[in-house]
Amino acid sequence: MEAELNEIRYFLEQYPPFNSLPEEVIAQVSRQVEISYYRKDTPIIHFGDEIHDLYVIRSGEVEVYRRKGELYNRLDTGNLFGQMGLLTNNKVRFPVKAIEDTLVYCIPDDVFQQLYEQHDVFADFVEVADNARLRQAVSNSNNQNDLTTSKVRTLLTREAATIDKNESIQNAAVMMARDNVSSLLVIDPTVLEDEDDNSPLMGIITDRDLCTRVLAEGIDPSCDVGSVVTTEVISLDHNAYVYEAMLIMLRYNVHHLPIFKGSNPIGIIEATDIVRYESQSSLLIVSSIFQQQSLEELALIASQVKDSFVRLVHEDANSHMVGSAMSVIGRSFKQRILELAEEKYGPPPVPYCFLALGSMGRDEQLVVTDQDNAIILDETFNKALHDDYFANLAKFVCDGLNQCGYTYCTGDIMATNPTWRMTRKEWEACFADWIDDPNPKALLNASIFFDLDGVYGKLKWAEQLNGFIVRRARKNNRFLACLARNALNRTPPLGFFKDFVMEKDGRHNNSINLKSRGTAPLADLIRVHALAVGSRARNSFERLDDIIDASILPKGRAQDLRDAMEFISMVRIRHQALDVEEGIEADNNIEPENLSDFERRNLKDAFQILSNGQNFLKFRYQANNQFK
Amino acid sequence: MLKKLLSPPTIDWQGKFQQKLKVITHKVLRDYYATPLPLGNTPIGEVEFLAMDFETTGLNPDKDDIISIGTVPFNLQRIFINRAQSWTVRPREKLAEESVIIHGITHTDILDAPDLSAIFEQVLQEMAGKIIVVHCHQIERQFFETALMARINKGIEFPVVDTMALESSIQRQQYGGVWNRLKGTKPQSIRLGSSRHRYGLPAYSPHHALTDAIATAELLQAQIAHHYKATSAIDNFWQ
C-alpha cells in the first residue's frame, strides 16, 4: 500500500524551489527522501567527500564553509545545501556543519537530476554559479520592462516632415497645420552629404519656436524659415531605447527629438509619444521647475519628486533610468535656483561653472540625497572684488537646495565653502596634487570630486577639467593604488540569516545600509577601474562599458559587477519607493524581515561579487606594480 | 558497573528464535523466526531497524483492535522513506466515534480495508531480520500478540528497542537521585512529542501510524547521537 507522507509533502510545499513544482511531483519527491538527524556541532558533509543527496533542512541550523574554513553561509529551516556538489562532480565543495540539533531531508541524486532536467524553476534555483542566478534575476526584471526594451523606432508613425530653408515661415506654419505635426526639419539643399559630417539637415523648427521666435519677436512671417531655425539639433539613433529618448528630452529640456538612421533623419518623436510609455511626471516636473518664480514655489514642486520616483519604480524602470531621471530633476532644481540667484544678485562679475559632484555627477541620484557641489571660476576672478558675489550666490543656491529636499552636505563639500570655489588653474593644481602626491587620508573624502559634472554656466570647463583628471590619473600607479585602498574601506556583509544581516565574522545586525555597504563601495570600485582605463564617463554603468572595452578584468567580471550594481540599486530603490508610499521617511536602511526570499538570495550573490571585486582590486592596484 | 549488574539480564533473542522454530508450524511465523537476527554484540551503528507504530480503536488489547500500521526501515544514518509502508485494516469491533476523531480514519476507510489476517504476512516480512523500534512497546507487543491469537491462535515475540523506555532512563540519569530531588528538578514528560522537542525535532501531527513510526525513528537517531555511542552493542538496548 502506498504510504501517505503528508508531513514531508506539506513541508516541501512551503519552500522554494519546491513550492513552484506541480503537486504530484512534490508527492513523488516526498516518497523518495531519506531522513537524517545531526546533533549540534557535528559535521554533516565534509569537503572532498562524495555527495549523492540534495539536503533540505527540516529543522535546526547549519553553517556552510569555504574550503579554508571561512564562513560562507548560515542556513535554517527550508534552506538547501549540497546542490553545487551534485551539479559538478559529486564532490562536496562547501562543507556543512550542524550548529543546532538538525533534521535534514536527503533527496537522492537521481531524483535531483530528474527535477533538474524536467523543471526549469528547479534548475534555475539550484544553478551552480551565484552570478548566473543574479544575471537571471536582473534580466528577468528587465524583460518585463517596456521602457528599456522598446526601441525608439517603434514610436515613429510617419516620416519626418521637411521644409526647404528658403520657404517662408508662413508656409512652415501652413505645413504644420496641414500635416498635423508640431515640428519640421529644415533642409539646406545646397549642402551635400560628405565625409566631414556635413549634412543637408540644417535644423529644426517647432510650433513653440513660431510663438517665441516669430510672433513674440515681431518677425515677418514671410521671412525665410532658415532665419529662425534651431541649428543645434539634439537627435538620437534609431536603435536607442525609449528610455534614452526620455532621458535626453529631460536632460536638454526639449520636446522634439529627430531620429536618425545613419545620417538620414527617419522621423521625429515628441514628448507626447513617450507619455504613453512613461507617466509624464518626470517630464512635467522638469518643465514646471523652470516655470517657478521663487524658492517657495520650487519647494512645493519638490514634494512631487518623490511621487514621480515611485511612479517610475512602478513602471519597472531600471536603476540607470531612475538614477538619471532623479539626477536630471536635481540638476533642473539647481539650474533654476541659479537663475533665481542671478536675478537677485545680478549677472556674475566673471564667468563661472557650477558643478554637481558625487551621485548627481554620476547620474545615480535617488530620493534620499544630500547636495555636493562646487564652483569653477574664471581666471580673471579677483577675490577682493568678486568673492562676495559668489559667496552670496552659493549660499542662496545651497539654502535653496536644502529647502527643496537636498540636505546640506555634512562633509561641507558645498560651494558655500570657500575652499571649493576655485579658478580653473587652481582646480587643476588641486587635482594634480591629489593625483601626483596621493595620501589615503586626503583622498578619503575627495573621491566624489572625481565624479564631477557641469550643471550651469560654462559647462565646457567641467568637461575640460574632467579630461585633465583622466589624463593625469590614468598612468599614476601610486594614485590608483591609494584610491583602490580607500575603495576597500566599506565592505558588504555576508548575507542574511533569519531576520538578521550576517557579517563575515558571524555577527548579526538588525539592518543594513544598502548604500554604504553596497552601491557606494561598488561605485568606488568601478571608479578606480574607470580611471585606470582613462574613461571619461561618470555613470557607473557607462564606466563599466568602458572597462569592458578595455578588457582589464577577467572575462565576465565587469558584467557581474553591472548585475550586482543593478540588483542592489533596485532593491534600494524599491524599498525607498515602499517607504514613500507608506508615508514614512525613506532611507537607505533595509531590515531583513522586509526582504523577499528572492531578494535575500540575489543580494547575497551581489554582495559576493562585490567582495570578490574588492579582493581583485587589492591584488591589481599595488603602488609598485606596472599595470598592463 | 553496579547498574549493569542490577539491571535485568539481556535477552538472548537468537536462542529464543531457535526455540520458536522447534515448536512453531505456521508457515508465515516459521519464515519470520527463520530469518537471522543481528547478534547481541552487534554495534547499534550497524543494525538495521524497523520503526513501527499501530493505531488502535482503544487502549485495551482484549477489547480493542488495530486499525492501521506504519513501518519504516532505518539505521543510525538514514531513515528510508522510499521503503516505508502503511496499512489500514478492519477491526473486529465497530469503530467508536471518539477514535475516528483521533486517527482521522473514517468508517468508510475501514469498510474497504482488509482484515489483519490478509496482510500480517507482509508486516512480518518487513519485520524479519530487523530490530523493531517503537515508542511504548506495550501497545505494539500486546496488540500484535492478541490480534494474531484471535486469528491464527498463535502469538508473536520480537526484539524491541523502546524509545520511551530509553527516554525514561535518560531522564532518570539526568534528573534522578537525591540531589535532584532536593533541588526539586523533576524528570520531564517522555511522551513522543515532548521527547522529540528536547532534541530539536519538529512537531508532527500525532496519531497517524506512519508519521508516528517516522517520528520514532528520528527520535532514536537523536537519542543515540546525544547520549550513546554508535559502537555500543545492540543487546544493551533491546528488550
UniProtKB/TrEMBL annotation, chain B:
Signal peptide boundaries:
none
**Which UniProt key words apply to this protein?**
Exonuclease, Hydrolase, Nuclease
Matching entries from SMART domains are given as: EXOIII
Q: Which residues form the Exonuclease domain?
A: 48-229
Pfam families found in the cross-reference section:
RNase_T
InterPro entries documented for this protein:
Ribonucl_H (IPR013520), RNaseH-like_sf (IPR012337), RNaseH_sf (IPR036397)
Which GO molecular function, any one, fits this protein according to its record?
Answer: exonuclease activity
Asked whether the keyword Nuclease is assigned, the reply is: yes
Entry keyword Nuclease:
yes
> PANTHER family from the xrefs?
DNA POLYMERASE III SUBUNIT EPSILON, PROTEIN NEN2
Task: Quote the protein name from its UniProt record.
Answer: 3'-5' exonuclease
Organism per entry? Shewanella colwelliana
